[in-house]
Amino acid sequence: MIAVDSRARWQAIKARIITPTIMHVLMIMGVALVLFPVIYAFILSTQTPQEYYRIGNLIPGTAFWENYKAAWERANMPTLIRNTMIVALAVALGKIFLSIMAAFALVYFRVRGGGIIMGLILLTHLLPLPVRIVPTYDLLSGFGWINTFQGLTIPFFASATGVLLFQQFFRTVPTDLADAARVDGAGPLRFLVHILVPVSKTNIGALFLIEFIYMWNQYLWPLLVANTLDTRQIQIGIKQLIATDAVIRWGVLMAGTITAIIPPLIVLLALQGSLMTGLTMAEEG
What is the pTM of this model? Predict the structure, then answer.
């Protein structure tokens, strides 16, 4: 009887204390491993050359304001952030609009060959922009859209991921809502704007977050299309911090990098709840 009680007591201690402690330690180690590059970049952004060339120096330095001011001025950060914000917002909003319209048409209208159309839309995943970059560049050059915001944004407006996300969600919306709206005299557009869009807020937030961060981190396409300061993107501007010195000033470079990740980090923190909820609802659909 005593052995049974001791075993039960040990199992209870293991379940309530030991196992949760081990799991928390493993999670903390995982988070630290993932965050270490960002933390190290921030530490470098505060150091002078003498400080960061010291082996194993993981202590913040004395050149915080000097490095960030140099990165802000030399890379013309206000212009880069403005340009990148315009492109990221335009693409995110454009993809949301087109994805909602396409999904609405496929779900609520009797489209002949709708399944085939959706299959063809999903096949576009096999042809991302880097694969078709030469014909796309040639097409935009013919339009005169090189070094313009149209050239930076319009090729990214179509989104198979967005169409699939909203199509899966619209299928979970009860058909009684559409019938009730029809009885009340609401047309398709009114039903979409006043009923479907409000109940799709989490999906809209999820897609906005994904596409905003995706466009913020674009490098190859802006490198080809945006060659002037008026359209230059932040990733290209950071790269130019390397090219302006015979010896790379890692503190200034890391200061520019940390500055560049702040806007998408703010968007991520604001919409992370929508991301998890929106993707979960799409999977359930």
Answer: 0.84
